[in-house]
Specification:
5 helices, 9% helix, mainly beta, three-stranded antiparallel beta sheet, globular
C-alpha cells in the first residue's frame, strides 16, 4: 500500500461512464470510398446561414473499387465497397464477390475475401510486357471487367531526405523525394507515406494518485506508460509530373512539418512509397484529387461519377467507380531525431496543456488553487493524473491532464517491429 495522504474528501459513488483509461492509437486515414462519396455528394454548404440536414432523394448504388497491383512480390490486395447515401456514415463492404486477375499468357490470380478486403491466394508480381485484366462478379450477379493494363517504367526513387527549410514564413522540416530517370520515360508519379513518431510523456512521475476506499493514496507508477508510438498515413492524393521539364528529374516535397509540431519532438520515421503511373492513371488521380478537394457544392466544378477503366459487362447500366492500377513501386524509410536537425533548441510544445494545477474549493488550500471541478470525478474518468509535487507538506496536491503523464491515453506503448532507435 502506498503512502496515505490525510485528506478527508469522500470519493463519490462510482458509475460506469463507458470510458477506458488505456486508449490505443489507431491508424487514421480516409478510405477511398469516402473520397468517392465526396465526388458524388459534395455537400459542404459554407455560404448557408442556417444549417440544413441534407438527405438523399434519389440514390443509385455504385460499386467502389480500390485495385493497385505492383511489381512487388507479395499477396496483392483489392478493396470493394459501396457508395453511401448522404445521411449514412458507415462504410459498406461489398461481400461475397468473385474477384480474379488474368494476364495475356492465360494465368489466373484468384482473390479471397479476408477482413473486408480481397487478398490474392498466392504471392505474385506484375512484370514488364505482360497485360493484366481485373474481373469482378458480385454476390447479386453484377459483373465488371477492366481494360487490359501493363506495367509502366520501373524507376526506383534515389533517396528520401529531411532538411530544415522555411516555407511560407514557417520554419520546419521538408521531407523530399528525389528521383531521376535517364531514359526520360517515367514522367508521372504518385506518392504515399506512413509516418511513425515516438512520444514521451513529459510529466510522468514515479508515484501515481489513486483511491483506496475513500482515501487518496500514492502507489508506484507504471513505467510502460512513459514512451509511446503513433502511426498515421497520408489522407490526400499526392501527385507529381516532370512532363514540363527537359529531363525526368523529380525533387518532390512529400511532407512539411513545422518545427513546433510535437510529432518530431523526439524520434520520427517516415515510410515513403513512389508509384510510376501511365498517363491515363495519372489523369484519373489528378481529376479525383481536383474534385475531392472542391470546397463547396456551389463550386463551378460539380462532382459526379468519375469514369475509370472498369466497366460493367454485357452492356448493363450497373454503376462502378474506381481504377485498376498496374504500377511499379519503390519504398524507402528514413529516421531522424529532433536534436539532429535542431541541436540545442527547446523541444516543440506537447500537443496538450501540461501546466500543473490544483482544485478549488479545497478545504485546507488557499490560492493558487483556482481550478474548477471535482478532482475525484475527473480522476475516475481518467481526465487527470498523478500527484506531481506540493508546497509545504500537506498544503497543495498538484495534477496534470492525463496525457501529460500517461501517453497510452491517446497512443500505443507497443514499439513497432520496424522501429530502430
Amino acid at each position: 500500500m502506498g503512502r496515505l495522504i490525510t485528506y478527508k474528501y469522500l470519493k463519490p459513488m462510482s458509475f460506469d461512464f463507458g470510458i477506458t483509461s488505456k486508449k490505443r492509437s489507431k491508424k487514421i486515414f480516409i478510405p477511398f470510398s469516402k473520397i468517392i462519396f465526396l465526388l458524388i455528394f459534395s455537400f459542404i454548404l459554407n455560404s448557408c446561414t442556417e444549417p440544413y440536414a441534407l438527405q438523399t432523394n434519389t440514390y443509385e448504388e455504385a460499386l467502389v473499387v480500390e485495385a493497385t497491383i505492383t511489381n512487388e512480390l507479395k499477396k496483392q490486395e483489392i478493396t470493394l465497397t459501396k457508395t453511401v447515401r448522404l445521411e449514412e456514415t458507415e462504410i459498406q463492404i461489398e461481400k461475397g464477390a468473385e474477384v480474379y486477375i488474368t494476364d495475356n499468357s492465360g494465368m489466373i490470380y484468384n482473390f479471397e475475401e479476408e477482413d473486408g478486403r480481397y487478398i490474392s491466394t498466392t504471392e505474385f508480381q506484375v512484370i514488364p510486357d505482360v497485360t493484366y485484366r481485373l474481373s469482378i462478379t458480385t454476390k447479386d450477379g453484377r459483373s465488371f471487367e477492366s481494360t487490359s493494363e501493363k506495367l509502366p517504367t520501373i524507376n526506383p526513387m534515389q533517396n528520401v531526405t529531411a532538411t530544415v527549410e522555411t516555407k511560407d514564413s514557417l520554419r520546419g522540416v521538408s521531407i523530399r523525394v528525389n528521383t531521376y530517370d535517364p531514359t526520360n520515360s517515367s514522367k508521372y508519379y504518385r506518392y504515399e507515406y506512413e509516418e511513425t513518431y515516438k512520444i514521451i510523456a513529459p510529466k510522468w512521475v514515479a508515484s501515481k494518485a489513486t483511491f483506496n476506499g475513500p482515501e487518496l493514496v500514492l502507489v508506484p507508477n507504471d513505467k510502460d506508460i512513459i514512451t509511446c508510438y503513433s502511426t498515421k498515413k497520408n489522407t490526400t492524393i499526392l501527385l507529381n509530373s516532370t512532363v514540363a521539364f527537359n529531363e525526368d528529374r523529380a525533387n518532390y516535397v512529400i511532407r512539411f512539418i513545422s518545427d513546433q509540431n510535437y510529432i518530431i519532438s523526439h524520434r520520427y520515421s517516415i515510410l515513403v512509397k513512389q508509384y510510376i503511373e501511365n498517363l491515363a492513371a495519372y489523369n484519373y488521380y489528378k481529376t479525383l484529387k481536383k474534385i475531392s478537394e472542391s470546397g463547396s457544392i456551389l463550386s463551378p466544378t460539380q462532382p459526379g461519377i468519375l469514369l475509370g477503366n472498369i466497366s460493367p459487362t454485357n452492356g448493363s447500366n450497373d454503376k462502378i467507380v474506381g481504377y485498376f492500377d498496374v504500377t511499379s513501386v519503390s519504398t524507402e524509410r528514413i529516421y531522424f531525431n529532433y536534436a539532429d536537425l535542431f541541436p540545442f533548441e527547446p523541444l516543440p510544445p506537447y500537443y496538450t496543456d501540461c501546466k500543473e494545477f490544483c482544485y478549488a474549493p479545497y478545504p485546507f488550500n488557499p490560492e493558487p488553487c483556482t481550478h474548477d471541478g471535482n478532482y475525484a470525478l475527473d480522476l475516475d474518468l481518467d481526465k487527470i493524473t498523478y500527484y506531481v509535487g506540493s508546497g509545504a507538506p500537506g498544503t497543495f496536491i498538484f495534477w496534470v491532464n492525463a496525457p501529460c503523464g500517461d501517453c497510452t491515453t491517446f497512443s500505443s506503448n507497443i514499439k513497432p517491429p520496424f522501429w530502430v532507435d
